[in-house]
Write a structure and sequence with these properties.
single chain, 31% strand, alpha+beta, 4 helices, Mannose-Binding Protein A, Chain A, 177 residues, four-stranded antiparallel beta sheet, 25% helix
Length: 177
Amino acid sequence: MQPCLLLALALLGTASASHPASTSPEAEEVALEVPLEDTGCPLESETRALSIPDPLAATTFRYVIVTRCQTFHDAQRVCAQCYRGRLASIHSYHANACLQRQAQLCTNRGQVWIGAITQPVGRTVSCQWADRSRWNFSHWLHGYPLHSHRYCTSLCTNNGRWRSLRCGVRLPFICEY
């Protein structure tokens, strides 16, 4: 057996690292099939990473589009746990258009989650980013945001416009990190 495998098996209590037992090839195959912990993170085949430079801020924003459908809150959790980020907040038409084009290329769904939340405040609606950054840009489809409940926001991959949706809908999503 390989020294690294022996160490791993010893830590699991399956084999002794100091006295390797002679085993058959079949036993070694079974020993190699130790299940890995499922982190819930998307596979590389379920993601597309991209960077968008912002010359005004003299910085580059990094994103990952995840094609695995999740609810808004589960998508937030995946962004935090797997990418140390958050659902994307969008602060310019340029960034919105770039994200829309890339999401259209890699998803077969018409919408993806972004990090905006809306809720009614009297006769108006309050819009805020989940990361609490400044609300300085929006690209709502005519008739949106909806005013009747608390909603989460999706970006339409066909036209780049935003829509209010119930947060429990399962969609692909865009993380910013």
